[in-house]
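Hey team,

Filing this mostly as a record. A colleague (T.K.) asked me to run one chain through the structure pipeline before their review meeting, and I want the input and output archived in the tracker in case anyone asks later how it was produced. No errors, nothing strange. Just documentation.

Input sequence:
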Amino acid sequence: MLKTLKLPLYPTPDQHDRLLATMHRFNAACTWIATQAYRTRTTNKFALQKLVYYAVRDQFGLSAQLTIRAIAKVADVYKRDPTKLPHFRPQGAVVYDERVISFTPTWTRASILTLAGRIPVSLHVCAYHATLLQQTAVRGQADLVYQHGRWYLLLVVTLPEPLCASGADFLGIDLGIVNLATDNEGTVYSGAGVERTRRILAHRRRNLQRKGTKAAKRKLRQLSSKQARFQRNTNHVISKRIVQTAKDTGRGLALEELTGIRSRVTVKRPQRARHANWAFYQLKSFLVYKAILAGVRVQTVDPRNTSRTCQICGYCAKANRKSQSAFLCVQCGFAAPADHNAAVNIRQRALAVRAAVMPPMVSVSIDTVSDGDQGQAAGL
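Output structure:
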């Protein structure tokens, strides 16, 4: 599997200016290339390169390889939707490859090409990243990004995928807003902390925006992305605990397929902000990649009516869901927390999918095989 490592750079003030100038020139070139691609409706990278290569070299002063990288970046973006003209922010990422960036064997310094030539920039690699870089291969591309006044290199490494354990059971996980995750054993990972942080920060932003002073704007910049960082950390903690539970018990993970849920589900106006801040996709992606690294099997199932179906009798009705938190079957009278009931149904659906795709077991009578064949029949 592929994993992106975010490595911080520590340039000197002079190196900072050079990197920023290169970034601005690179993205200005990308915007100009995009206008030419849009004008000629050219989505093919090689055709676009023939069209604009020399003009970009002369007009923007980029090196040959940075010009190639800019053309490739525009082609990748423009081909997604040829009906729209892409525009690249001045501080968008600069795409480097092995010809214009290199690293010391100890990963303490990076040699990066700029408009004024190569510069050696200090690079910090933590122990975890150092272990991955020593054990895995780095793909040829790296992105130079500038976020909140700090420089980073985004490196993509190829990690070996461990064999997933073929456990016979699953840990069903129901994802939600009030409770971010609930498993079929009844463990609840509440979203109260995320919602409380969202309300506090929204209130602060609203008051600072009304004030409008320089100090208020400076404080707004400090608050930017704070909620996203808090929510990302929460999702990391939850996903790590869930995957560890599944690994320790030899089970796989059963998750809902929630693609397109925002367009399918409508909420009342007071709940729109909370619904819009629901980072279910991030939590699911964390669960999937952590499960792959831990060798835990992941099975996705159809989420329809999991919260309305009784886990005991299988009766499905909208009336079964008495409230957001309560489930009461109108047919058999079974009652349980709604999220727990949904998690049990998700586990049952994953087991049904597994039973449908697994080949039937062939029984072999030990009395009818030789001693040598007995070992083969037993898997020895």
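Quick notes for T.K.: Residues 177 and 278 are 6 Å apart (CA to CA). The chain has two domains: 2-158, 170-357.
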